[in-house]
Specification:
The complex is a heterodimer.
Chain A lengths: L21 H13 L11 E10 L2 E11 L3 E6 L6 H8 L7 E6 L2 E3 L4 H6 L2 E4 L11 H6 L5 E2 L6 E2 L1 H14 L16 H14 L4 E5 L7 H16 L3 E6 L2 H4 L5 E6 L2 E7 L5 H8 L2 H16 L2 H6 L1 H8 L11
Parallel strand pairs in A: 3-10, 3-11, 6-9, 9-10
Antiparallel strand pairs in A: 1-2, 1-4, 4-5, 7-8, 11-12
Chain B lengths: L1 H10 L6 H6 L4 H20 L10 H26 L7 H18 L4 H26 L3 H24 L3 E3 L2 H4 L3 H7 L1 E4 L2 E4 L1 H18 L1 H11 L1 H6 L4 H27 L1 E3 L6 H11 L11 H20 L7 H23 L5
Antiparallel strand pairs in B: 1-4, 2-3
Helix pairs in contact in B: 3-15, 3-16, 4-10, 4-11, 4-13, 4-14, 4-15, 5-6, 5-7, 5-13, 6-7, 6-13, 10-11, 10-15, 14-15
Classes of the chains: A alpha/beta, B mainly alpha.
């Protein structure tokens, strides 16, 4: 650490357990309502209708629909392998759906490539691919959309301008950058995700797709990212927030879409559904209930039994609820 | 004093010494290495009483600068390709093949030197584009693709030349090229203070300057870093990954053709064995210059210092009277030291978090 920049003020609860305390959750939720939110329009800015996608004989998605309105957070929940990644890759122009259509502002669109999706205002931030750690902050900020100066063969990347804008934008999201040529590898995981979100906002994204932005992060870092998700919502962006962590989804979601085994397992608006129901629909509920019973039984048994069962308990610890997943 | 500290406080800056900033540059290790290697040979020369002759003479300098420039031309192109995360092992035999092609076109087919040079470059660029295309289409590692091309070019060079001339050397170019103005672009030299400085030096400086400008000051340069960092991430933000890679494979093949033209036209003959091991020397040049073997980080300017280390070592060993059998031992040691130093510097620069 070079210590050359200031972190955003730390959120309280340094020693918070894995579960986000209720007051933090409430504060995060209140953040969105306090900010001046533009009225939520009824036409979805991005809508997927009846999408199916097959890879050979594998059914990755079948008849899945999802929509997000401006100033709304739609949490896409599902266990590993539920089809979350395939769905967002379809929404961001990586895959063409085998059937079904995409609509932006009610108009049917075909996304030919990730660049095409970006040009239409759909920005996707991938968990592992959000930024390039060995490139500087300003280069990362502008990669793929570099500002240029000069003319003809001497047209060059406006390094000074890029550094200035990147520094400004990072400051706006609460990260003070002394030197924009500093490598992104020096930022923390949460700051990297935040940089990617800020970049999407700066380039005029109308839809922000976030692929598991919090799953590899600690509680404090996750809170930083969640705060910026709400900020993007307050600015009127439609946010699709992919996670398998119900505790991260509940405080910020306006709408919850649950995928299970490639199909739609449920869709709810805020307040309609609680944590247990979401977990059950994601397919993790039964396992968690069973785990609770097993642990209860262990608590009543003698210490020797607990030690003997330690190995199996370790295996259970990586239930889908908190295991970081390389692929959704 | 108070105002100064107050303004520092307001901006919340931390004072960082210029040395620390320098340490964050990818070429820092190579610059230090170049100074050390030069000083070692200079001191050894002085101890031998070689002042004004050998390593420390104008003629000597012209010699080691020529070797530096030759490998430096390859190193500048290869460093760009390596930053983009790819290798080109075929450039060594491309030097031989392009040289033979140039020689055959001029001597056997009587084609004017200018046209022959253009055709040679066109051939090299086409092979480079094919390397890139094959790498992208098959998804095979470039190490394998270009290793295959290394063998094909070497073998085809021998086969074709032997079929046409029943020999593996094409000689007697001088009669065709001596008065050719375009050939002069590759062979000219100027004598300063008794040392003959070849035009290859200018080509080298031009190659490093262009490569550095492209890498650090153009959109394409940003794409090179991005592609090398993660081609998937680069594709997702709209970087034309395939195009970047194909262009860079063409650049390395083109640098080999430039090397071949300079050598063949200067010497007046082409030999299939020319350029052997140059692919490794170019990679060493780039790696010593601070380019990361796995891509995504590096410097074209650094490759110039890497080339300087190679050139001075190769000739310096002879000048100070060490048996040149030991050249490869020294070179290997320098490579290992440089990689260790660069890895350490990169870890500092990236906050050990990457």
């Amino acid at each position: 650490m070079t210590g050359s920049r200031d972190r955003v003020p730390p959120v309280p609860h340094d020693t918070a357990p894995f579960t986000m305390p209720a007051d933090t959750a409430a504060r995060i939720a209140a953040y969105g309502t306090q900010a001046a939110r533009p009225p939520s329009s009824d036409t979805p800015v991005l809508e997927a209708r009846d999408i199916s996608k097959y890879f050979g004989r594998v059914i990755a998605l079948e008849h899945v629909s999802l929509s997000v309105r401006p100033g709304e957070v739609n949490c896409l929940l599902g266990d590993n392998g539920a089809g979350k990644s395939t769905l967002i890759k379809t929404l961001s122009g990586v895959h063409l759906p085998d059937s079904g259509s995409l609509y932006m502002d009610g108009q049917a669109v075909t996304l030919q490539s990730p660049r095409d999706a970006l040009d239409r205002g759909i920005a996707t931030v991938y968990q592992d691919l959000a930024v390039l750690p060995l490139m500087s902050i300003s280069r990362n900020f502008f990669v793929g959309s570099e500002p240029t100066t000069g003319w003809g063969p001497f047209k060059s990347f406006d390094v000074g301008g890029a550094g200035r804008i990147a520094t400004e934008q990072m400051l706006e999201i609460g990260i003070q950058v002394r030197d924009p040529s500093q490598l992104v590898g020096t930022l923390s995981g949460g700051e990297r995700q935040t940089l990617a979100i800020a970049r999407a906002e700066y380039f005029g994204a109308r839809v922000l797709i976030l692929d598991e932005p919090t799953s590899a992060l600690g509680v404090k870092e996750a809170a930083i990212v969640l705060r910026h998700v709400l900020r993007a919502r307050a600015k009127g962006l439609g946010v699709i927030f992919i996670t398998h962590n119900v505790q991260h989804a509940l405080p910020i979601g306006d709408r919850f879409t649950i995928l299970s085994h490639g199909t739609l397992a449920g869709e709810f608006v805020r307040g309609e559904v609680g944590q247990d129901e979401l977990l059950r629909l994601m397919g993790g509920g039964a396992e968690l209930t069973q785990l609770a019973h097993e642990l209860d039984a262990l608590m009543q048994a003698d210490p020797g039994t607990i030690e003997a069962a330690a190995t199996s308990a370790e295996a259970v610890e990586t239930t889908p609820d908190d295991a970081p997943s390389p692929a959704g | 004093m108070t105002t100064a500290s107050a303004s520092v406080d307001r901006k919340r800056l931390r004072n960082v010494s210029p040395l620390r900033l320098l340490l964050g540059r990818p070429e820092f290790g190579a610059v230090v290495g170049a100074v050390i290697v030069f000083l070692i040979f200079a001191v050894l020369s002085v101890l031998r009483g070689d002042v004004g002759k050998g390593f420390l003479s104008v003629q000597g300098a012209a010699g080691w600068l020529e070797v530096t420039a030759q490998v430096g031309i390859l190193g500048a192109a290869v460093s760009l390709l390596m930053i983009a995360g790819e290798f080109d092992l075929s450039i060594g035999s491309m030097i031989g093949a392009a040289g033979l092609l140039l020689g055959l076109l001029i001597v056997q087919f009587g084609i004017p030197p200018t046209l022959a040079i253009i055709l040679t470059f066109a051939f090299a660029l086409a092979v480079g584009a094919f390397n890139g295309w094959l790498r992208i289409k098959t998804g095979l590692p470039s190490f394998i693709v270009t290793l295959g091309m290394l063998l094909i070019l070497r073998g085809a060079g021998i086969g074709v030349t032997r079929t046409i001339t029943s020999n593996t050397i094409v000689s007697g170019l001088a009669t065709y090229t001596d008065n050719d103005p375009v050939a002069k672009l590759f062979t000219a030299s100027v004598t300063i203070g008794g040392g003959e400085f070849k035009v290859v030096l200018l080509w080298w400086i031009l190659a490093v300057a262009v490569a550095t400008w492209v890498l650090t000051r153009t959109r394409f340069g940003n794409w090179i870093f991005a592609v090398g960092g993660s081609d998937q991430a680069a594709r997702y933000v709209g970087v034309p990954v395939s195009r970047v890679k194909v262009i860079l494979f063409m650049t390395t093949a083109g640098s080999a053709a430039l090397f071949a033209c300079i050598q063949v036209l200067s010497v007046g003959s082409a030999d299939v064995l020319r350029g052997q091991n140059k692919e490794f020397e170019a990679i060493i040049t780039a790696v010593v210059g601070g380019t990361l073997l796995t891509g995504g980080y590096g410097s074209a300017l650094g490759s110039a210092f890497g080339a300087f280390i190679l050139g001075t070592t190769q000739l310096g060993i002879n000048f100070v009277g060490i048996n040149s059998d030991w050249y490869q031992v020294v070179l290997g040691s320098i490579l290992l030291l440089a990689v260790l130093a660069n890895t350490y510097l990169l870890r500092r620069a990236s906050g050990a978090r990457s």
